[in-house]
Write a structure and sequence with these properties.
There is one protein chain. By secondary structure, the protein is of the alpha+beta class. Helices cover 40% and strands 21% of the residues. It has twelve helices and 18 strands. The strands form five sheets. An eight-stranded mixed beta sheet has the order 1-11-12-13-16-10-9-4. Strands 5-7-6 form a three-stranded antiparallel beta sheet. Strands 8-14-15 form a three-stranded mixed beta sheet. The longest helix has 40 residues. The protein binds one RNA strand through helix 3 and helix 4.
RNA sequence: GGAGAGUUGGCAGAGUGGUAAUGCAACGGACUCGAAAUCCGUCGAACCGGCUAAUACCGGCGCACGAGUUCGAAUCUCGUACUCUCCUCCA
């Protein structure tokens, strides 16, 4: 959530920033007009309330002295009616302001391409050289089905499209990959977490999924408050400190967690219909950081580095891009995507998204620390995939495939595969 | 799923209709070469608004959360959440 005070302070700047994210300038004007109305009502009610408190004290004094206080009580009645009328007005205006405010995306950072077009992402650099094949590389799903380690058909029978069974060496590979990721993050000082996979509405609001993106998630209810299947471990990790003041000496805090991520993929019908790229349920190792505002850009660099490190150790070619303002997630001020090379698609595909959300989530979720003056301030939050596990498996299968249809295990994963060095067809 | 008890400031803990005791901690000061102890003083964190150079001042708000009753609610009523105990169930 944005700070209404910041909008008030420099409306033109705010309008320019948000225009790149598709927000109409009139929306800001509306919010500010309502905000002014709101403050006017507050001044009126607070004057009346101060009066009420004073008269109420007089009544108490008179009652104690066993005197008659009928005049004061009559006055209280009159003031009370006025106050409740104003309170009602205030509630209505506040609801309107809030309605707008919670739907405004974060301000893009200064070095983000100010465009609504996905294609205007900026490539920062490349790592590795895509391998040249002396045969036609198969797609990962083809390899997986031929090797008998991925089963999409039975998953479709059991659950539906965009689900998968990993089987035998496939399951083992998935497990090897995420264990490798988690171990590497532990070396970099991340605290490993296992989180709830079902979260409440306040948590979904805190990280910015609600109220705007209810369509994208699976919600379930067990005869009461609805719960949502997490679309990313970012939700339970960031909300860990919701409505708390984090001791400043703990900052920066770095968490990592493996979790399944559940996404309805509404609106992406027909895209990536085959394979592991776009699933309703997939495993992801997530990294989350909480830090002081002055450190967040350095921490973003570290986050990107920690994600890159995994790809480098796996020997997978990738590039790093900075997303255009209009393409970054709702909460993000700046997002760096890592895109890994997929030979069968002959292009880079997103495998990690690292974002600095500045104080946007912290304001929603009320996560603060005390600055040097002891005053509570919002922390900055960052999140990044480190990495999407299914997509990493897909990249490994495609990049490490051999002409005979077998797949060589990347060296760093061999210990995690109990010494297995190659995946051969299994029954 | 059933029964009961509870939730007050950083912590402890009073307060059953008149506007949040007290202790500890914290902060400021005195004493001291300095510290401890002692003494004096301040003190509910957060939030909102006004006025601002201001983290100063004024006011609102504030007793788990939300409604209600009342001139007035920590206190009475209803609902919700969470914690604890016992039973039931369960991996």
């Amino acid at each position: 959530m944005l700070d209404i005070k910041q909008l008030r302070q420099d409306p033109d700047w705010a309008k320019a920033k948000l225009a790149a994210r598709g927000v109409k300038p009139e929306t800001i004007d509306d919010a500010l007009a309502l905000d002014e109305q709101r403050r006017r009502i507050i001044v009126q009610t607070e004057d009346l309330k101060a009066k009420r408190n004073a008269v109420s004290g007089e009544i108490a004094a008179k009652k104690r002295a066993k005197e008659n206080a009928d005049d004061q009580i009559a006055a209280m009645r009159a003031v009370g009616t006025e106050i409740s009328a104003l309170d009602q007005q205030l509630a209505e205006v506040e609801a309107k302001v809030t309605h707008i405010l919670v739907r405004l995306p974060n301000f893009p950072a200064d070095d983000v391409p100010m465009s609504m077009d996905e294609a205007d992402a900026r490539e920062e650099y490349k790592w590795g050289t895509p391998r040249t094949f002396d045969f036609t590389p198969k797609a990962h799903f083809e390899l997986g089905e031929d090797l008998g380690i991925l089963d999409f058909e039975r998953a479709a029978k059991v659950s539906g499209s965009r689900f998968v069974y990993y089987k035998g060496a496939g399951a083992r590979l998935e497990r090897a990959v995420y264990n490798f990721f988690l171990d590497e993050h532990a070396k970099e000082g991340y605290t490993e977490m296992i989180t709830p996979y079902l979260v409440n509405n306040d948590s979904m609001f805190g990280t910015g999924q609600f109220p705007k993106f209810t369509e994208d998630v699976y919600s379930i209810t067990n005869d009461g408050e609805p719960l949502t299947l997490i679309p990313t471990a970012e939700v339970p990790l960031v909300n860990y400190y919701r409505v708390e003041i984090v001791p400043s000496e703990k900052l920066p805090v770095s968490f990592t967690a493996l979790s399944p991520a559940f996404r309805s993929e509404a609106g992406s019908a027909g895209r990536d219909t085959r394979g592991l790229i776009r699933m309703h349920q997939f495993n992801k190792v997530e990294m989350v950081k909480f830090c002081k505002p002055e450190d967040s850009w350095t921490e973003l660099k570290k986050l990107v580095h920690d994600a890159e490190d995994l790809l480098q150790k796996l020997g997978l070619p990738y590039h790093v891009i900075t997303l255009a303002a209009g393409d970054a997630s709702f909460t993000s001020a700046k997002t760096n995507d890592l895109e890994v090379w997929l030979p069968a698609q002959d292009r880079y595909r997103e495998i990690s998204s690292c974002s600095n959300c500045t104080d946007f989530q912290a304001r929603r979720a009320q996560i603060r620390y005390r600055d040097d003056n002891g005053k509570p301030q919002f922390v900055h939050t960052l999140n990044g995939s480190g990495l999407a596990v299914g997509r990493a498996v897909a990249a490994i299968l495609e990049n490490y495939q051999n002409a005979d249809g077998t797949v060589t295990i990347p060296e760093v994963l061999v210990p995690y595969m109990a010494g297995q060095t190659v995946i051969v067809p299994e029954g």
